[in-house]
């Protein structure tokens, strides 16, 4: 995925959120940390990830970024990707994203306005 390939609509959606949770997988299971990822071209950057996150991505580079809904009945933004550590900065190259409606009593509305984005395959780690 080149920089111009990052969907402008998805970039605008990301801009509406603040705090995200970074989920990495280690030998002992999932590890979740609050982060403020910055979209830079076709990747997200996280400065100064913690030691557990760094240890996890060294053996399991698949990660998930999850932004909780802004409103109680809003959407969760979930972006899967592959991570690489570069000089105390974690780069996350997105591979798939979904803007998913949170649980609601009205099941007909629950996924009617969900959006999926298929992004780059993991070869874009350069």
Key structural traits:
globular, disordered C terminus, 3 helices, alpha+beta
- Number of strand segments: 8
Taken from the alpha-carbon principal axes, the silhouette is globular
- Annotation field: number of helices: 3
> If you compute it from the alpha carbons, what radius of gyration comes out, rounded to the nearest whole angstrom?
15 Å
Give the % helix: 10-25%
Q: What is the N-to-C order of secondary-structure elements (H for helix, E for strand)?
A: HEEEEHEEEHE
Give the termini separation: 11 Å
What is the makeup of the main sheet? 8 strands, antiparallel
Structural class: alpha+beta
Average pLDDT over all residues: 86
Multimerization state: single chain
Spans with pLDDT under 50 lasting ≥5 residues? 122-126
Describe the structure.
The protein is α+β, with helices and mostly antiparallel strands. It is built from three helices and eight strands; from the N terminus they run αββββαβββαβ. Strands 1, 2, 3, 4, 5, 6, 7 and 8 form an eight-stranded antiparallel beta sheet that branches. The radius of gyration is 15 Å and the shape is globular.
What's the topology here?
Layout: H1 8-14, E1 20-26, E2 29-35, E3 38-40, E4 43-47, H2 51-59, E5 62-67, E6 75-86, E7 89-101, H3 107-110, E8 115-118
Antiparallel strand pairs: 1-2, 1-5, 3-4, 4-7, 5-6, 6-7, 7-8
